[in-house]
Amino acid sequence: MLQRPPHFTINRQSSLANGLVFAGLGGGASSLKYVDSSGYGNDGVLTNMDNTDWVWVPELGRWGLSPGGTNQIVDIPIPPVTVTPCTMAAWFNAASASTIYSLIDVSWYDQAIPHHFKLELSRGTSGRVAATTYASSPGIAVSASSFTANAWFHGCAVFASNVSRIAYLNGQPGSANTTALTPSGINRGTLCANRDNNNTIWRALVGYAADPLIYNRVLSPAEIQQLADPSNAMLSGLILPPRRKWWPVVSAPAFKPAWALKSNNLIGSGVA
After folding, report:
1. Residue 53 phi/psi, 5° resolution?
2. Residue 249: inside a domain, yes or no?
3. How many Cα atoms occupy the beta-carbon half-sphere of 264 within 13 Å?
4. What pLDDT digit, counting tens, does each position of 22-60 carry?
5. What pLDDT does 181 receive?
6. Is residue 264 a part of any domain in this protein?
């Protein structure tokens, strides 16, 4: 399997770069920094975690995180996204299929009431991936097909508008939902958990996560399938390997001893 190099650049000409506003692609691995490779500089910080929470994921050929729930999260600055349209995507490996976990959460507040657009893992006899909007209980979740615990899956939540959302599991869509929730601006971004208006952490992931992405547009089904391909470590050319540096080599004139110069002069003069 092709592996993602530790150092790389983003190909701005790639279709998957269009609308990308947050990209946690493994930059900062082995440190407390969670680098945003989108170019917007929304670098996050590992909170209540340390550099041992970075893990190499051989099944995906890239770096991921291993949050242990409770208060182990990544706080990120507010990404330049207008809530809708919006696409969120991430790889996950959950310790339980019967617990609600959050993968990506963008939230805002209206009179101290938290509102969320989330890519979420929802409970069930087997887990479900949900595109969730939440203003007050119950939230509105649209679920894709089921997943099992302790294995890698890809989830995606697409919010085409405040009345249109759909979830994908491994590139395959679930049912759509048209229940309205009107956004009013974002003031927080969180990975691997939610945070409410009292700054309380909840629905924190226990397991593994990799490649959280946020777009300010609706990705096509074909683009979502590319993100959901476990062998696509370079994301269809979105990621470019580091360029090799070629240093010019200057050749000095070949040294010729004095006898060689004299011999050449004699030959050139035609003397026998």
Report:
1. -80, -5
2. no
3. 6
4. 999 999 898 999 999 999 999 999 999 999 999 999 999
5. 66
6. no
